[in-house]
Amino acid sequence: ALVGQRYLYNRVWIPDNEEVWQSAEITKNYKAGDRFLLVQLEDGTELSYPVDPAALPPLRNPDILVGENDLTALSYLHEPAVLHNLKIRFVESKLIYTYSGIILVAINPYKQLPIYGDAIIHAYSGQNMGDMDPHIFAVAEEAYKQMARNNKNQSIIVSGESGAGKTVSARYTMRYFATVSKSSSKAHVEDKVLASNPITEAVGNAKTTRNDNSSRFGKYTEISFDRSYQIIGANMRTYLLEKSRVVFQSENERNYHIFYQLCASAMQPEYAHLKLGSAEEFNYTRMGGSTVIEGVDDRANMVETQKTFALLGLKGDFQMDVFKMLAAILHLGNVEIAAVGDERSSISSEDKHLSIFCELLDLNCDKMARWLCHRKIVTTSETVIKPMTRAQAANARDALAKKIYSHLFDFIVERINQALQFPGKQHTFIGVLDIYGFETFDVNSFEQFCINYANEKLQQQFNLHVFKLEQEEYMKEDIPWTLIDFYDNQPVIDLIEAKMGILELLDEECLLPHGKDENWLQKLYNNFVNKNALFEKPRMSNTSFIIQHFADKVEYKCEGFLEKNRDTVHEVLVEILKESKFRNSLSLLMVTLNATTPHYVRCIKPNDEKLPFEFDSKRVAQQLRACGVLETIRISAQSYPSRWTYIEFFSRYSILMTQQELSLNDKKQICKTVLQRLIQDHNQYQFGRTKIFFRAGQVAYLEKLRSDRLRQACILIQKRVRGWLQRRRFLSVRRAAVTVQQYFRGQQAITARNLKETWAAIIIQKYCRGYLVRRLCQLIHVAAVTIQAYTRGFLARKKYRKVQPIENLTSETTLMTLLCADLKPRGVVVNMIPGLPAHILFMCVRYADYLNDADMLKSFMSATIDGIKQVVKEHSEDFEMLSFWLSNTYHFLNCLKQYSGEEEFMKYNTPRQNKNCLKHFDLSEYRQILSDLAIRIYHQFIIVMENNIQHIIVPGMLEYESLQGISGLKPTGFRKRSSSIDDTDTYTMTSILQQLSYFYSTMCQNGLDSELLKQAVKQLFFLIGAVTLNSLFLRKDMCSCRKGMQIRCNISYLEEWLKDKNLQSSNAKETLEPLSQAAWLLQVKKITDDDAKEICEHCTSLSTVQIVKILNSYTPIDDFEKRVTPSFVRKVQGMLNNREDVPQLMLDTKHLFQVTFPFTPSPHALELIQVPSSFKLGFLTRV
Length: 1183
Fold this sequence. Notes:
7-stranded mixed beta sheet; alpha+beta; single chain; ATP binding; 10% strand
């Protein structure tokens, strides 16, 4: 277990210029002091790799650990392991989400995926974070759950490069909260919160070279919840709007979307007064040479923008004011400024665009033309009007455009916040921060400086939080805490924001009348060069400076810093703000975040070409370093990176335990004993209260021991099986020889005496058998005569008993109270005919018909229906009561049909039953009402059954492992599966079968019709199959051959249950077919073309999306299993192309099969029905 040594056949990672790291296998044992490591690359190339004994190449993890949901589950935890794990998951398994401790790493697939529907939201709702595959919904659920459980505000911090998918991720978290916390109010607060996204995207997002929908501002949305944890409102704060984009766009980029939406709608009559045209006609929208985004309809998006404005209560007048401002900005950009000599400039009074600009904003045209070309300089003694050059005037025009847009943006956000305001008090909130990640370009200016400064602050908060969680984990597990070295970026923050730091020197220079970028830069050089290790002067430039950020070195050009910073400094001078608006808002943001429990989502851009599922290792590694993922890994790897619960360890490594060790009752003690035997160096692990902590490489060592033991076991089994097969063959041959010998010897031994004795024996047997049969016949005859005598006597007595209809129906209220409200199913249904209350009710109906009393009949039927409705309403969650009244409503409906006098029903009756048919009234209208009521009861009855069984389906069908020796548990990393924490009180397959049997016996006791019962069972089996399959789709750790065997075994238990209850004709088994095919797919071979063909032919109940998902998620549990290659998945996809199925991943667990109520006539004669005294209906008498 010595991780410092490198042995023959071990695999390592060596640096590579293209792939960052590449795998190599050691071909000769490395000895201390060797200068070279002999390795073979995966392409077969032999290489002598020069090594530093103090820093040997990192070891590669066993294949069995690759592709894990959580990077912290890896035994060797370093950059190449992280990169490889992400690549395998993204490229081969098509999984875009991976945990890295407390971080969710989200890689942009550049493709629409079917993993965000409401069914997926409901699948993640209520689940523990480690129980399902990593997902943005899992992070949202964890934040929501922690808020509700701890009454503490939460934050989800989403960051990443432009084009990495931040906006989409933030949008999905908000959609999740809106769905799971839906209130019953009609205010549609959730819809309003979601509607704020399209508006802010229209005015704050733009096409860049990296992203077609890039957010050019940071946004912190605070979603407010009441005491019931339902959304009551929201509030939005914005940061760092890229104002320069309004007046300048680089090649192949666009201005903000809203401008193009407006230009695309210019021909609409309502926009005629804005005097707009196509985007190509305006300087501010055509500058990047890219006015159209492929696949985007700007005009249709304009309609959507207007709809969302309206949804927020921002009606037509407000919208038109906004559009006027936007149109004015476009016209301002087209104002022509002419040079007048070298020092002056002018604008023609005839300028069309200037006059439209002034008309739209109700301004004086002459004044505007003058002040665009002149500026006022105020000194202590005088005010001077100074003309501007053409370049200065153009800058002034652009500055005005930026200022107008900036104020308009803030105004729109303010109005959105007003629309999202709520009465009453906020109980808790969840904030979602969507902000630029660390940025570095070929040319970096003031915007990048501000973004990177904000990211330094966020990274510091993140580092401290990770460090704190690590410390808490050790303390919780009673493990000695040793100080871990972690990167502290406080020095670089001080360089930027401390007294006489970069920002203070910038503000100081801005206040000077003749302040210049160059003068400010010289101050930076004087103050920091050779005095601060984090600040450098570029060798070849006098106009730039370099800062060593936490992520990377960045060179900033000083040009434009003063001008861009003056936006806020001028406000200081007029005492609108006391300090930089940005620094103030950033400070407020950090205070807010520090007061919440943070959750981190790091969005990664896999390639710069926006190609689906293409992984550029260089670009990804660069971002992983920049976003803090590798820092988390480094902190974890310093101590005990691998952590297993005792249950996980026991389940995985019980194969390494001796019989003596397994005989102990305490699993925790067993784990300790076996580990102390397997790993002699006790410094390589620590025993916590609930977990075992391992140093790097130890889990890989244990996996090798396990793999070796399994290989030995396989060899032993093969040896035994081969021996058994040979012995069986030998015994078969020997038996055949003995048989041949026996017949041969018998043939010779036959004599006349043998034949005579055999004949005599047959004659004796014949007479003996005849005697025994005659004796049995006599006994049966006597018994039959006796039974007939008693039966005839009983029937004769019954015949003479006078039974008449019920005579007096004294009190409907009393009857309804006793029959509906007070009657309890349990205790009265034993030995009672099915639907007895229904028969009693019908006899009352028949009595009203006998009297030909329409009022009595109407009153009684209304009272009956209302009574049933009331009892069902009061016991809407009581399964037994619902079952009882579903049965009786059904029987009552059948009685109304059976005795209706209609020929189609009468033909099933006995002559005596037909004498009891109704004579005076047609109750078909009431039959329809009762039928509708029965359907409502049935649906509620199904809902209650589903609620009672749903929570045990996944633990019983998917998680519990009943088959010996096929445990599929593997390390789970930081995010623990709830099922791996404790194995007491877990639900099993037996729990499901017991629940089904309870439902079945209750339905039978309550006399539910067998056809109706079958429909209910079919619905339950559909739920079991759908919930299990949906969970399988979202749990890569469950997609293994062994789990397929377990699922198939569990399905066989369900089929056996159906057979035992004689329910094979219910079609319940057929509802499990998709799950059965998924289990088969997990077990079948997945290598050749024939395998692919067999999969396509067999998996007819699974959609293409579902088949591909299972193949991509397939996870080997042992070294003997192989991953499914991407080429095989593509092969299957190609074969399934012609299939016409719904591209939907999840099954709809809310789907209800149509219920039918079959007509089943009652065999009971009304005259013979007895009313038990327990019903307390003594006031009813017979006539």
